[in-house]
From TrEMBL:
<comment type="similarity">
    <text>Belongs to the LysR transcriptional regulatory family.</text>
</comment>
<dbReference type="GO" id="GO:0043565">
    <property type="term" value="F:sequence-specific DNA binding"/>
</dbReference>
<protein>
    <recommendedName>
        <fullName>HTH lysR-type domain-containing protein</fullName>
    </recommendedName>
</protein>
<dbReference type="GO" id="GO:0003700">
    <property type="term" value="F:DNA-binding transcription factor activity"/>
</dbReference>
<dbReference type="InterPro" id="IPR058163">
    <property type="entry name" value="LysR-type_TF_proteobact-type"/>
</dbReference>
<dbReference type="InterPro" id="IPR036388">
    <property type="entry name" value="WH-like_DNA-bd_sf"/>
</dbReference>
<dbReference type="Pfam" id="PF03466">
    <property type="entry name" value="LysR_substrate"/>
</dbReference>
<feature type="domain" description="HTH lysR-type">
    <location>
        <begin position="5"/>
        <end position="62"/>
    </location>
</feature>
<keyword id="KW-0805">Transcription regulation</keyword>
<keyword id="KW-0804">Transcription</keyword>
<dbReference type="GO" id="GO:0006351">
    <property type="term" value="P:DNA-templated transcription"/>
</dbReference>
<dbReference type="Pfam" id="PF00126">
    <property type="entry name" value="HTH_1"/>
</dbReference>
<dbReference type="InterPro" id="IPR000847">
    <property type="entry name" value="LysR_HTH_N"/>
</dbReference>
<keyword id="KW-0238">DNA-binding</keyword>
<dbReference type="InterPro" id="IPR036390">
    <property type="entry name" value="WH_DNA-bd_sf"/>
</dbReference>
<dbReference type="InterPro" id="IPR005119">
    <property type="entry name" value="LysR_subst-bd"/>
</dbReference>
Amino acid sequence: MSKAIPLIALRTFVEVCKAGSMKRAADQLCVSPAAISQQIKGLEDQIGRRLFERDAKGIQLTPCGRSLFDELAGTFDVIEKAWSRAALKAPRQTRLVISTTSTIASSWLIPALSGFKERCPNVEISIQICNGLSELKHGHVDICIQRETAASCENHATHLWSSYLIPVCSPRLLSTQRNIESPQDCLTFPLLQDTERNYWKVWMNAFGMSNRKMIQGSSYGDESLLISAACAGQGIALVNSVFASEALQSKRLVQVTNATAELKFDYFVYCAKERREEWAIAEFMKWAVQQAGKTAKGHAREIESAGQVA
């Protein structure tokens, strides 16, 4: 009996070819680069030939790899189109799988989700943490909420909000030290950093400031962790105003100054183009847009604009 066809590994191979690198393919498939490398090595072991050559520029297809990709790419496209047509003919779905980042999920989506459940009580929601849009294409998720990317044009997208950095901290922290009257005063407090230590630098540069302290301090892997650290009184954090909204409304955080900087990227809710008219998907996307509008109005303050800074 012949061995089972390694469909998962073959799909991984196709995605690596399309992405041009194992790291980008890993991001799109929401797995680690090591997992991608293992799948490719398994294929090469089964075939007994190399599929990629590694050089200073990255990876290049071997003649064997090119031949395999040319035959497989169209096959997977046919499978995806057949699946999409079947999904369109299915009855009203009662379960939505939503892919988003941990920050969006914890800081915006989950606190607001009861509103959607009231609107559509028969729709069950499953939330997955992932930073890529490729799962939409393959039908593994129904909705994706994330910032705009190069792959955005491949899907149906609806704008949710623009991005503004605001400085926030615990009210307890302000009560123990002097008030903040200007952006410069933030330097008298501990500064909480994003993982790339970039937010404070671009924010201060936008207001004509430069100080070694702007890249010092504890750093956190995503904005939900930054918000938690700020709520705990560990210092002042720069975060997306939408992500801080719930903590601001509950008084766990305060905005310490009106000095607000606009970022260059916006956030969107995505679905596959061929599925945008499905009932549950359409209802969720309409609700998400309405909720995003409420969130933006809920914490609106007079803004001292610094233009686009990142």
